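RECORD TYPE: protein structure
NAME: Ribonuclease R
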Amino acid sequence: MSRKKLSKIRRADPFFERESQRYEFPLPSREYVSQVLTDEGRPLAFADLVKLLDIADGEREMFQRRLGAMEREGQLLRNRKGDYILPERASLTAGRIQGHPDGYGFLVPDDGSADIFLDQRQMGKVLHGDRALVRVTGTDRKGRPEGSIVEVTERVNTRLVGRVFIEHGVVIVAPENKRISQDILVPPEKKSKLKVQSGQVVMVEIIEQPSKFSQPIGRVVEVLGNYADPGMEIEIALRKHDLPFEFSKAALEENKKMPDKVRKADHKGREDLRSLPLVTIDGETARDFDDAVYCEKQGRGWRLVVAIADVSHYVRPGMALDKEALERGNSVYFPRRVIPMLPEKLSNGICSLNPDVERLAMVCDMSISAAGKIGKYRFYPAVFRSHARLTYNKVWSWLSGEKQPDNEVDRKVLPQVRDLYKLYAALHKARGQRGAIDFETTETQMLFNDQGKIENIVPVVRNDAHRIIEECMLAANVCASDFLAEHKQTCLYRIHEGPSEEKLRNLRTFLGEFGLALSGGDDPRAKDYAALLEKIKPRPDFQLLQTVMLRSLRQAMYSPDNVGHFGLAYEHYTHFTSPIRRYPDLLVHRAIKAVLAGEKYEPNKPWDDIGLQCSATERRADEATRDVENWLKTFFMKERIGEVFDGTISAVTAFGIFVALDSVYIEGLVHVSELGQDYFQFDNIKHQMLGERSGERFRLGDRVRVKLVRADLESNKIDFVLVRDEPRAVGRKKPAAKRRP
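PREDICTED:
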């Protein structure tokens, strides 16, 4: 049925325009289907819906698929007669299952209402991540809604990574994802070529999902090796978090056809910047160079040129490489291994701004005043070559006067490096006046031996060379978002909302304990946070106060809805400077090119969906790298059981305190049962544990001495006990005086 011939019934769909933009032949939207069911107020058969929504014979199959998708996501339910009903009319709640390592779990409802507790018996029917419909049956002992699973609408676990255990000839696989507390039973297969041994790490394919009466059953499809093999922690993390780590055959074919060098034909329509002495400044071990910079004095201010690798010239919409890049969302940086968003021929080859070779770039050319304010700017495609590959340490050694350039190439670029430093000072001052928040955190780096295990963990020293590049990238990103907003081109903004009402209230209560206040009323700005941070810097409890302030803020994410960036104090902000390793940056490049060509850019999927996808892949990468780092740290500490360390309380929970060690930058738990012979009450607003009888207090930021008693590789947990050689001066309260009878 053509769009022109659609009836009034179909055009009455409140989301008709949206569906028309997405599909050539739009079907009734999910919202319209739900509305019709609501208006009818009764269960409807498929034939009823076809009639009510004026579905043509040729559309029936596609419409059936749409209803099936709505069923899987819990938006529709079928009764025993096969008629469609709305779950809420049957007092059912749709959502996603979230498992807990102790066997119980929750349904996290799609509508944002309170999580529904599911006991171990209910969790026996599902696995973490599955979608289900749940009926609330009452409340648990903590006052939370408790429910029972009525129907599992979607099974998301088809393959799992885990460890093999063989007991009395029975093979089971214990999943590495501790949120899946059920073991997978592996029945014997006569013709199986894979012979597994107890303790090995394997991939298991689930051939029978769990039910009310049986545990999940699977077959081993891949043996990864032994648990302590070098690099095994990364192999596990890749599979546990479903990180794509192998490129498809189609993507590799496209990659193979990519040129090794810039062709003459690629110069067309580009400005020639080959004589401009642009340079890259990166870490010593960097291999993919996204950005090159150039700075020169311009009147009382400066001209800043930021050239970013033109990945969009090579990775086009519709290509298999583009599909893979979206699925990955970003490159993932593990210790000693990178899972790139794009194959190495692109990321380390033709798209990497290596020195002394021609490269294609998208350029942001800015005029910046002496006060650090960005004036005019323009974007254009260019061809250029990097005149030097510099490192942060080398640049800082020149700027600090520690060393002088020792070759002709470095001597030639030194004047513009000095201009960059002067520009940085102006940009940094403008940042302070703008009120951007500048938290002081310590990043760490793992040093490895030849066997691939940690030898030491050391702090990464950031110098002003790092900050020069950071400010240049911020300037280019702001110009990109301003350019796209001005031309009304939709894009993915990097958004960061202010604190929620609850977190703001808790923060103010906590600060009040110290006689401090956050200005800004009910709607504080970044400058209010920045002013308070500056005020508390000289205090001995600065780290404690800064940590609590940092935790009051939300996480940044990608969205087409621009709400500004709270932390950086920008009205609009996007990511433009790393298209080799971040998919949103690649989309921003395409959007800028479309504007320059007088066109509008629309990706293959809705902007909202891509924003959620890229935000999710970013979180996934963070979780995977955290898993690997935790395993490596646990392995490192295994040999140090019994040693005593000084540290700082880095987190307080209902089950104990986490302590970050001074010397090795590792965190572990002191369980509440190890705090002393007392009942300790957890206060999440004051971030403390307080003993009822003794009045002893353990608060975030307090100094403690601990002894390492456990480093468990299976659970990645490090446990300490307190060492009480000396009385703790910090945080001790006098016990309350007894009343006279």
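COMMENT: DSSP finds 18 helices and 33 strands in the chain.
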